[in-house]
């Protein structure tokens, strides 16, 4: 029986956008595990699996439920040890913890600004109201005011990616010669932008763009199957 992945969409069922859900998509594909994708809106999440989690991703593997992309990766690693490893040992798990924290503190703040209005515009009226109220409470101002700061923040964001560039000078993936969960953590954030907006994150010739393209081609191109936003 295939694993069920509950993931987030707006009105377009063919455009799943959650960065955390994309981490899980890539983790499942990395393990070579068949899975079915159940795509839901923000307001449908509390109804999933008898209210199991307030957020997605959630997976159901037979009678086992797991939420949170990192917890899911750990579960898959332990449950399916005979399949390709997401961490390659305790060092890889520790590295992924660092990358997760770094991504949340350095990458996500800028990308949250980039995707605010594209996410809002992809939702139906009811979900738009929820999204606006919840995000404006966090930011303390309107979505439009936050989004207007996007271009002034881009240079600092580009500079912040220098640790990844340095890493990619000596290896094709953050995980080394092949990708690990650490790659999927960063990839999920950039895929978030790709499927929602044509906003250009990278300058021409940026090694991070080249790495992102390599990730899009992984696992039969499961991520590239979702077309980039026009």
From TrEMBL:
Keywords: Transferase
Record-annotated membrane-spanning stretches: none
GO cellular component terms given for this protein: cytoplasm
Pfam families linked to this entry: GST_C_7 (PF22041), GST_N_2 (PF13409)
CDD domains in UniProt: GST_C_etherase_LigE (cd03202)
Keyword Transferase among record annotations: yes
Superkingdom classification of source: Bacteria
Stretches assigned to the GST N-terminal domain: 8-84
Cited PROSITE patterns: GST_NTER
Record-level Gene Ontology MF annotations: transferase activity
InterPro entries: Glutathione-S-Trfase_C_sf (IPR036282), Glutathione_S-Trfase_N (IPR004045), GST_Omega/HSP26 (IPR050983), GST_UstS-like_C (IPR054416), Thioredoxin-like_sf (IPR036249)
This protein's name: Glutathione S-transferase
Source organism per UniProt: Phyllobacterium trifolii
